[in-house]
Amino acid sequence: MDTKSLTLLVEILDAGNLSEAARRLKMTRANVSYHLAQLERSVGMQLVRRTTRRVEPTEIGLKLYRHGRSIQDELAAARESVETLGKTPQGKVRLSVPSGYGLFVMAPWLLEFKQAYPDIVLDVLFENSVDDLLRDEVDIAVRIMSEPPQNLVARELGQVRYVACASRAYATARGLPQRPEDLARSPIVSAAVIGRPLRLSAYYSGQPRQHVVLEPTVISRNYAFLRDAIRAGLGVGILPDYVVHEDLARGDLLAALTQWRLSIFGRGMYMLYMPNRHHPRAISMIIEFILERAQADHEGKPGLMPAAGQARVS
């Protein structure tokens, strides 16, 4: 066994299947399969289990993967130390950020970071569909969720406050909902999860949590569009406070159910990235930069809530 064999194993497991590993290694799938078989023969044990969609490590395969990953990380760190000596920070960072939080909150942070480090390339995806960082080759993902996945490092950026709101014209014509169950009979403007009911949880002064199933009449992952739909009087919006805070402050929109704490997709905002990996300097820098900006904004700006507790690292 040599470092080349361990690198092959790491690439296969990182890629998730032989075809993707072959693409990344610029080899044929048959060649990757052959070298994997040779490695397993030299070890005398099966290292990878193949399913219809993915490859998964056996117990010994996972141990060797960790050794191989550690070697790769050390080599990458040494290489970067030499290459960046005396140079301004360089590299590429690929981020996946929520369409709403990314646009309304994070965009100024990312622009400030780019201005400070012009030689770092930022590739920013404003969407919520990335769920496999390795497969989609994403370095950092920011997500709203109740609990972060156990297989990733999770750094809490803050909490999300949801608000129910409507335009003055809508409130005059139809009135504002007085209780959470009124939302079930109201035209709702909100993001939604395709193929699943939209469930709202409402909390009030120690009372049992209420659940309401919503049926939005305007659905989008574009939060600027949702805000415009609420302004146009098309229904009651259920959106994060940071999307409509300025409209509420100006009185253009009116808040409802202000005594209730509302939640749809979870309330925690987490930055996620792969554990146990060497992060190039550019990625490490933007991770710390985002954490600093999140702490400052969530503790100092209206419409944002600070983190509930200390960051959890898987």
Folded structure, characterized:
It is a single chain. The C terminus is likely disordered. Strands 4-3-5-15-6 form a five-stranded mixed β-sheet, with helices on one face. The longest helix is centred in the N-terminal third of the chain and has 25 residues. It has nine helices and 15 strands. Helix 1 packs across helix 2, helix 1 crosses helix 4 and helix 5 packs across helix 9. The two termini are 30 Å apart. It folds into three domains: 81 residues, Winged helix-like DNA-binding domain superfamily/Winged helix DNA-binding domain (Arc Repressor Mutant, subunit A, Orthogonal Bundle), CATH 1.10.10; 104 residues, Periplasmic binding protein-like II (D-Maltodextrin-Binding Protein, domain 2, 3-Layer(aba) Sandwich); 102 residues, D-Maltodextrin-Binding Protein, domain 2, CATH 3.40.190.290. A hairpin with a 4-residue loop joins strand 1 and strand 2. It has 314 residues and is of the alpha/beta class. Helices cover 40% and strands 24% of the residues.
Describe the secondary structure blueprint for this structure.
Layout: H1 3-15, H2 18-25, H3 29-43, E1 48-50, E2 55-57, H4 59-83, E3 91-97, H5 99-116, E4 120-126, E5 140-145, E6 153-159, E7 162-167, H6 168-174, E8 188-190, E9 198-203, E10 210-214, E11 216-219, H7 223-231, E12 236-240, H8 241-250, E13 253-256, E14 261-263, E15 268-273, H9 281-300
Parallel strand pairs: 3-4, 3-5, 8-11, 8-12
Antiparallel strand pairs: 1-2, 5-15, 6-15, 7-12, 7-13, 9-10, 9-14
Helix pairs in contact: 1-2, 1-3, 1-4, 2-3, 5-9
